[in-house]
Amino acid sequence: MNFLSCSKMSKLMSASLDRPLTRYERFQLRMHLYICRFCRRFFSQIQLIRKAFHHFFNETEQAQIPMANLELSPTARERMKEALRTK
Amino acid sequence: MTEKSVEPIDRADQAAHADPSIWVDEYGDELFRYAYKKLRNQQWAEDVVQETFLAAWKSHLRFQGKSSERTWLIGILKHKIIDFLRKLHRSRKFENNIAEPQEPNDFDSLGHWKQAPKSWGHQPDKALENQEFWETFQSCLQHLPNKLATAVSMVELEGQSTQNVCSALSITPNHLGVLLYRARTLLRNCLESNWFCHPKEKNSSEKNSTGKNSTGEKR
Q1: What is the extent of the structural domain holding B172?
Q2: What mean pLDDT is reported for chain B?
Q3: Most CB atoms within 10 A, among A3, A27, A42, B186?
Q4: Residue B122 placed within a domain
Q5: Residues of chain A found within 8 Å of residue B117, distances taken between Cβ atoms
Q6: What does the pLDDT look like over A24-71, one tens digit per residue?
Q7: CB contact under 8 A, B28 and A80
Q8: Over 80: is that where the pLDDT of B115 sits?
C-alpha cells in the first residue's frame, strides 16, 4: 500500500470523523485531498452520510416535515388507550 | 403547534390524577408522525408509539416537569425508535444471513480507486429534505451486516463515545475504526447506486409518458 494511497487516505478520512487526527495525519490528508478529486468526493460523501444520520435522528422538532396530514388511525388510538387502561 | 400553552399546574398533582389515555389524544398524532418519518412503516410506528406511552406511564411519577410533557414523551420515543431499529437490524441479520464483507474492494493493489466515487450532483444535501431518500437510507442501513449496523448506530444515532462503544462491544478502538470505515463505505456505495446515481428512483413520483427513455433501462 502506498504512502498516500487513496485506500489509506480514505481510512484516515473516516477516522477523522471519530477522533482528532495527529498533525502528521492531517498534513498527509490535506496533501492528498489537494491532488485527488475522487477522495475529495469520498470525503464529502461520508460527511453527508454523517449529516444524514444526525438530520433524521437528532433534528429538533421544529423541523416540520410535510406530513402534517398523517394521523394515528382510530383503531391504533383505541388500542393504545386500552393498553394504557389495563396497565 | 398547540403545545405553546403549557399550564402552570403542579406537575406532581397533574400526574397523580393523570388519565394517560389523554396523552393519546393530545400527543398521539405528533408522536406517530415523528416515528413514521423515521421508520416509514405504519405498523412499526404505531408499535413504538404505544411502547412510548406505556413506558411513560410507568415512569410518569418520576417526571419532574423540567421539560414540557411533549418534549419528555418525544425523548422516550427517540429511545424506543433506536431500540426498535437495533432489534430490527439484529433480526435482519438472521433472516438474510449476509456474510460480513471483507475489506470493501474499492481499491486495487496499489491502493487506487478501482471504482472511483461518482459525483452525487451539485446539491447532494437536498436529499436530506426528501422523505424517499430516508427510505433508501434506512434500507441501506438495514442491509449492513449486524456488527457494522450496531457500531454505526451507536456512534451516529446514539452519539455514544468511542470508549463506550468499544466497551459495550468489547472491541479495541482500532477495530471500531475498521467497523465504522466499512459501514460508511458500504452505506456510501449503497446510497450511490440506489439514490444518487439512480435517477429512476428520484423521479418515480410521476409516471412519465414522454417516451424519451430509449435505453430500455426502465424497470
Answers
A1: 127-202
A2: 75
A3: A42
A4: no
A5: 38, 41-42, 45
A6: 999 999 999 999 999 999 999 999 999 998 887 665 443 444 555 678
A7: yes
A8: yes
